[in-house]
Design a protein that fits this description.
- The protein is an alpha/beta fold.
- The protein has a single domain, classed as Aldolase class I (TIM Barrel), CATH 3.20.20.
- About 40% of the residues lie in helices and about 20% in strands.
- The chain is built from eleven helices and twelve strands.
- Helix 2 packs across helix 3, helix 3 packs parallel to helix 4 and helix 4 packs parallel to helix 5.
- The longest helix is centred in the middle third of the chain and has 18 residues.
- The mean pLDDT is about 95.
- Bound molecules: ligand PBG and zinc ion (ZN).
- The site of zinc ion has 5 residues, from loops.
Length: about 325
């Protein structure tokens, strides 16, 4: 059954499609800005004008959605730039929805790019105060919805934030805005390159008190179940490549749409090895994305989205 391509096509179980991809983007203040992100070759921080151009390219290549990360010009303990009416994400989303109304604009909801200490929640002394973070996260999500976001995606890993965000949205006439929850988000070294891209490295300690221990799998099911009970519409496992077992288990136990985030470190490792000539970049990219889909992901957040879309189209 493998002897010719016709048979192989007939029995192929997993078909990667451009519909599967969500492309992450980093947006910064300014005009005409296109800063190369050193730790992620081929990725950039864009000012809003250039972001629109890139998102148009993504949309025209068939990618259904983008995930927006903002880099504010100021940081402070209360992360006020995260939920400001005219914050960087709010203005970017507003423009994007204006220019590209059919592109699904998803916003990452977190505080770490906006707090001076770089943690994802409110910090009291040297402790992350889970409950004091919820209101700030809900305000942030609501401000994104007000700016026109099609979906909000909390990535902070505080307990109870999905319920708080759901409430805030419902009470303000945004009951139709879905929540994509970073439900099983591990405390991973694979986020290294992203923290450079988003300037979001914690200034003290680490994220082990709120992100999951890479050694745990059953706990992922508990995390996912809690988020669903709180009102999540799409659940996410993150990272992807080193957590295919988690994607597979969650897929078997849960019938909600499942997203997998193939993170910055996964992207950077493939790019680096390809640049060295040690692996075939495009092949290993497609194989990796196919594996993530085979494991059970319905959608994949990947920095390869544009590159993979191009290859799939040429096929
Ligand atoms: C912050 C956030 C991170 C990522 C997405 N949102 C990093 C972190 O938790 O430190 C990682 C994305 C990537 O590595 O590509 N809440
Ligand atoms: Zn964060």
């Amino acid at each position: 059954m493998r002897q010719n391509s016709a048979f192989r096509r007939m029995i192929r179980e997993t078909i990667l499609m451009v519909d599967d991809f969500i492309m992450p983007f980093f947006v910064v203040e300014g005009k005409g800005v296109k800063n190369a992100i050193k730790s992620m070759p081929g990725q950039f921080q864009f000012s809003i004008d250039n972001l629109i151009k890139e998102c148009r390219k993504a949309f025209e290549s068939g990618i259904p959605g983008v995930m927006i990360f903002g880099l504010p010009s100021k940081k402070n303990p209360l992360a006020t730039e995260a939920y400001k009416k005219d914050g960087i994400v709010q203005r970017a989303v507003n423009k994007l929805k204006n220019k590209l109304p059919e592109l699904a604009v998803i916003t990452d909801v977190c505080l770490c790019q906006y707090t001076d200490h770089g943690h994802c929640g409110f910090v009291d002394g040297n402790k992350i105060d889970n409950d004091a973070s919820l209101d700030l996260l809900a305000k942030t999500a609501l401000s994104h919805a007000r700016a026109g976001a099609d979906m909000v995606a909390p990535s902070d890993m505080m307990d109870g934030r999905v319920a708080e965000i759901r409430n805030a949205l419902d009470e303000n006439d945004f009951s139709n805005i879905p929540i994509m929850s970073y439900a099983a988000k591990y405390c991973s070294a694979y986020y290294g390159p992203f923290r450079q891209a988003a300037d979001s490295a914690p200034q003290f300690g680490d994220r082990r008190t709120y992100q999951m221990d890479p050694a745990n799998a059953l706990e992922a099911i508990r995390e996912v179940t809690m988020d669903i009970e709180e009102g999540a519409d799409i659940i996410m496992v993150k990272p992807a490549m080193a957590y295919l077992d988690i994607i597979c288990r969650v897929r078997q136990e849960i019938d909600l749409p499942l997203a997998a985030y193939s993170v910055s470190g996964e992207y950077a490792m493939i790019k680096a090895a390809a640049k060295m000539g040690w692996v075939d970049g495009p092949k290993i990219m497609l194989e990796s994305l196919t594996a993530i889909k085979r494991a059970g992901a319905d959608m994949i957040l990947t920095y390869f989205a544009m590159e993979a879309a191009k290859i799939l189209r040429e096929k």
